[in-house]
UniProtKB/TrEMBL annotation:
Organism (species): Alicyclobacillus cycloheptanicus
UniProt keywords, alphabetically: DNA-binding
Key word Transferase present: no
Protein's UniProt name: DNA-binding MarR family transcriptional regulator
Highest rank taxon of the organism: Bacteria
GO function terms (MF aspect): DNA binding
Domain HTH marR-type positions: 16-146
Keyword DNA-binding listed: yes
Amino acid sequence: MTATGCEPDDHPAQQARQFDKALFTLLKNLGPGLIQRLQHELTPGQVLLLYYVRQESHTVSALAKRMRVKPSAVTVMLDRLEQAGFIVRTREEADRRVVRVQVTPRGEDTVRKVLHARRQIVQACLSSIEPRKLDVFLNTLDQLAALSNEINLSSLPDDN
């Protein structure tokens, strides 16, 4: 038994559970939870869609692919965003079947406010960590991000 109360073989699993719990809480607080706390009329999915459209004008099919959903699901969200004045849709002259989506000033303002609030929360959290520990944490986080891109899911054990 280790000082953490875990069997030595269970320590990596315990660390993974601790990481999962902290990451889930962090993502909730900086994503859907933040949007709820800001009391926007938008859902987290709509804010994400606005964020993608804000980066560049997209077609509906490109947005669906990026969000990994069916085009019909994106169309429903876009209908609501357009009715509320967050986006505009235009048909391409060369091919009228192609619909491009762009953010309106109202949509831009909303995304900017959400990103600003997230940045403020992150800065407040990070400022409470000792600078040396923060540097180690950020370097480790960068490493995890890079490693997660390289892992082949089919090579992992299926433990469920």
